Amino acid sequence: MTLSRRDFERLGAFIEQRFGIRMPLAKKTLLESRLGKRVHQLGLTFSGYCDRILSGSSPEELVELVDRVTTNKTDFFREPYHFEVLVNECLPALHIGPREGRALRVWSAACSTGEEPYSLAMVLAEAAKRFPGLHFHILATDLSNRVLRRAAAGLYTEEQVSAIPLPLRRRFLLRSVDDPSVVRVRRALRERVELRRLNLLDDDYDLPQAMDVIFCRNVLIYFSRTLQLEVVGRLHAALVPGGFLFLGHSESLPAREFPFDLVAPTVYRRREPRGRKARSA
User: Fold this and answer.
1) Which residues have a catalytic role annotated?
2) Does 175 reside within a domain?
3) DSSP secondary-structure letter at 231?
4) Which range has the top average pLDDT, 47-56, 173-182, 233-242?
């Protein structure tokens, strides 16, 4: 079964418009291989599958489509200097503690299989020793239900957790009884992370409250320039004044287009309203 160029272009245009994932012609073979089994299971041709997706008659199939076309590459403590900036610069600047009577709100957008939000949870749990009264809640979202299920399980191989500093491994991970090569994030830490499905291209993220810190790293590079600007605008709106946005090492913001200040490489702070002095460490 072969995916024709016409059907590839139809499906590719839909995927980019709906999910922001670019589909140049070079990805035709990749898309064909990832969808072939599913198309066969449904008893359809590629043309029939495209018709079903584009008709909007099968919303549940969109979830299957996303799970098969997304690439989820992440690691624990990826770009480690970001975690140093979070603790040494962001936490003192935000002044969130017992007096405010609320938890620090952190969002890990495009969290994949959970390595980033659990890294954040470990770092913040350790930081509570330095900042008495610090409480935090982490929202972790992704487009794919498949990776969210894996994140919820909190199971990783020894190789996957090798980047976690040894003291944190000892404190926050448990070795599996059934398979000694597998470890699990402790329940107490997993309970600090709320997992939910979210599409960054949605007009409304439906967040219960504005966020103090957003990690949205190595995501914008997959979007067109137009979509990048739209998403950054929504992320800005989702931050409290003075909140921090972390991007990936190869990403940047056009400073003139958004009211952010660069505070460290790929770390930005939302400007506070005029007349209100930004708090600093």
Assistant:
1) 34, 142
2) yes
3) H
4) 233-242
